[in-house]
Amino acid sequence: MLKDLAKEALVKRRIKKYDKMVAAKSSAYDKWQKAMEKEPVAKREAPIRYEEGPDGEMIPHKKPEPTVKVIPYAKVWEVSDVKKDDNVVYIFVSPKGKLVKKAQEVIRQYFIAHPEHNVVYGDEDEISSNGKYIHPYFKPDWSPDSYLNAFYIGSFFACRAETMHASAVEYDNAVRMLGGTANKRGSVEQTGLEASLLSADVLFCMLAIHEHAFGKRMGLEFPIGHIKEVLFHRSPEQDVFYGRNFHSSRHMLLKPTTVSIVIPSMDHPEILNQCLNSIIETNTDENITFDVVIVDNGSSAANRVKYGVYASRAPRKNGLTKINYIYKLQEFNFSAMCNQGARNCQGEYLLFMNDDIECVKEGWLREMISQAQLGHVGAVGAKLIYPDTDLIQHAGIANVRRGPVHKLQKMHDNKNHYFGYNRGIHNMIGVTAACLMISRKKFAAVDGFPEELKVAFNDVDFCYSIHEKGYYNVCCNHIYLYHHESLTRGLDNLDPKKMERLAVEGDTLMTRHSHLYNVDPFYSPHLTEDETISAIIPKEDYTPVEDLPLAEVSIHEKGIHGAREDQCLRIGCEYNGTMDNWLYGVTAVGHEEGYFLKGYSFVIGSDNAIYDKKLLLRQVERRQDGAGPVNSKVYSISPYIWYRPDIRVRLQDQVNVDLTGYKVRIDKNTLPAGYYQIGMLAIDRTSRLKLINWVPNILRIRDSRL
Asked: What's the rounded Cα separation, in Å, for the pair 371 and 472?
């Protein structure tokens, strides 16, 4: 009885301590934003232009700094009739909230420093009833297709006066087309918040058209600016889209068209047959004809016969013209197989598809073509769902610090995630080739898929190359297909050999596109950067890696006494490598800064508030079948505790998993050179229970003298 009371008291004490820490760490965004608003605005120097003088000499000329005028959304139409003054910056704002105090100066300085931009928007958040800043919307850089689906620009934008006046006529004409009337004073017969938002939307659209923002870019530069700072606080009752969510309209084709569907497949004839039938049954658009190319790199004789039978028996209806089955015994190279398929068809558009895709809704093919036919659009993907669930398998690729990830993977699609990320049409840096469409002309512009990337990251490399050509990649999250990839499919890093191959191909990807290291124009750097985490949330821990204290390492010569290995202790290792690599990318050659590890860990079915965690390392030798410990010695480290609300979002059936994140920075001279396996120790502070578990992730410590 006394023992139970004592344990109950210990548990209550741990939970109280845990809740206090969560409360402190969960206010990270509010504290960070308020600190940001106190930071002085950096003064920018306008670029100096040179003009030829009367004697032919070049005279330096600096444009005078502009003044700023703030215009409510309800009065945007009045600006077109204002006396022209080209040295003014107009800031248009929603009435439902307020600009931060320094917003005007930030925007003014932006235009001074960026003469190439005439229109700009920025980020925003919500101010709660108690004055706390919450729900920040860290927006993507200019995303024309996202904009055409919803006014994601939100609560404010700004432009130069000369651009505004140049767009005035088009704006007045657009207002008339929408049912408004404009007299010579520029007034529009519209009232209310919805009308004022419509006026602002129309104006922004005219400005974007004037800036040629709906066309292909020249390289990596965007035609409209984006200030990656929160400069506006929405009122609590107002959502960012003002009730206008990403829509799911039926889109039109510009003309009748042909599509060639390339499907790599080996020894999966029944799965391929399901895929084929679903394509045929769901394409009912008379303006679309398509053929199919099956590329087989080594099926058994029996399965080759089945492929031939299924291909010949597939009904030629709903636009299907023919099926071409190509067999060639060769090593698996996804890129080469896709390129081979593209060479053996003639469709105007190419659709690359996995054989385990199942089409379930009519109109998906039309919707993908409707995007791919646009001149500025490159690769087009679709939302993929795990069968018999509402769990997302793919909703677009984001490029975080260590490379590409599927954000929202295994999250429920019955909920809207991060301002409609899984709804409507969005510009993304990449989409998966499990279902990827592109015009043949644009496919040829980057010479197809990179054949040096045989297994992983080839579709990502392809999308990055398309992006670098100035096209906008798109993910159609207003449609979905089933992807029969197993929910329990083993991750590549559960097999040491696969993990090593994945690391090599990942480094190849980022070396080929090193300027994209930790850069994704369509995914804000203020959002979670984790490689394997699904949720999209603002960073809730703004402590720079460089500011983490160096770890103190304890040595346990005979291992961890009294601990038992238990799979209920889960560990995710999201990065383990040199600090140089983390900070500077794959082109970093040194390791002067030491090593960095980060991830998350939790105990299934337990109250995680009662556990203390220690990161473990043990030296291993590499073997043909993986890796094994050299001896019984174990190193333990008390990690920096990292607030992870994304884990809580994913594990809603688990208790107190908010503080499951860990970060560790290790000095380069702390550990002997060698390979170290990563593990975790969970110590129950209300009993004598100690749990331990190891993951295959290997940290390589190099000789610091070399």
From this structure: 10
pLDDT of residue 2 exceeding 70: no
* Cα 686 from Cα 609, distance rounded (Å): 10
The CA angle 286-292-297, to the nearest 5 degrees, is 170
Residue whose structure tokens are 């007045």: 172
Name, in order, each residue with C-beta under 8 angstroms of 113's C-beta and a sequence gap of 6 or more. Answer: 44, 45, 46
Report which secondary-structure segment, H or E, holds 193: helix 192-210
What is the rounded distance in angstroms from the CA atom of residue 431 to the CA atom of residue 474? 8
Higher pLDDT among residues 542 and 667, named by residue:
667
Torsion of CA 328, 334, 336, 341, to 10 degrees: 70
Give pTM, 2 decimals.
0.89
Type of residue at 583: L
Q: Which residue has the tokens 């109109």?
A: 363
Structure tokens at 222: 């965007």
What proportions of the chain, in percent to the nearest 5, are helix, strand and coil? 30, 30, 40
CB 365 within 8 A of CB 282: yes
Six-digit token string for 409: 């993977």
* pLDDT tens, position by position, 413-453: 999 999 999 999 999 999 999 999 999 999 999 999 999 99
Q: Are 102 and 37 in contact (CB under 8 A)?
A: yes
Identity of the amino acid at 503: A
Per-range mean pLDDT, top range of 25-39, 489-503, 553-567: 553-567
Read off the tokens for 239. Answer: 């959502």
Confidence of residue 81 (pLDDT cuts 50, 70, 90): low
Helical ranges in 76-128 per DSSP H: 103-113
Strand partners, 634: 556
Using CA atoms, how far apart are residues 44 and 41, in angstroms rounded to an integer? 9
What's the mean pLDDT in 93-108? Answer: 96
- Alpha carbons 80 and 167: distance in angstroms, whole number: 8
pLDDT recorded at residue 179? 52
Residue 377: half-sphere exposure toward Cβ, Cα within 13 Å: 27
- In the block, which residue shows the tokens 């850069």? 519
Largest CA distance in the chain: 101
Question: Is the four-CA dihedral 537, 540, 542, 545 of positive or negative sign?
Answer: negative
Residue with tokens 């002309």: 441
> Are the CB atoms for 334 and 355 separated by under 8 Å?
no
Angle between helices 334-343 and 458-468 (to 10 degrees): 60
528 or 231: whose pLDDT is higher?
Answer: 231
Task: Give the chain's mean pLDDT.
Answer: 89
In whole angstroms, what separates CA 512 from the centre of its chain? Answer: 20
Separation between Cα atoms, residue 104 and residue 384, nearest integer Å: 42
**Residue 579 is which amino acid?**
M
Whose tokens are 């140049």? That residue is 166
Q: Would you call 648 helix, strand, or coil by DSSP?
A: helix
For 300-315, the pLDDT digits (tens) are 999 999 999 999 999 9
User: How does DSSP classify residue 74?
Assistant: G
Q: Which two tokens stand for residue 286?
A: 């008379």
Q: Which two tokens stand for residue 18?
A: 């845990």
Question: Among 374, 355, 332, which Cα is nearest to 262's?
Answer: 355
In contact, 395 and 480? CB cutoff 8 Å: no
Asked if residues 79 and 173 have their Cβ atoms less than 8 Å apart, the reply is no
Q: Which of 672, 617, 671, 619 is nearest to 639 (CA)?
A: 617
Q: Which helix (H) or strand (E) holds 443?
A: helix 440-445
Burial class of residue 159, CB neighbours in 10 A (0-12, 13-18, 19+)? buried
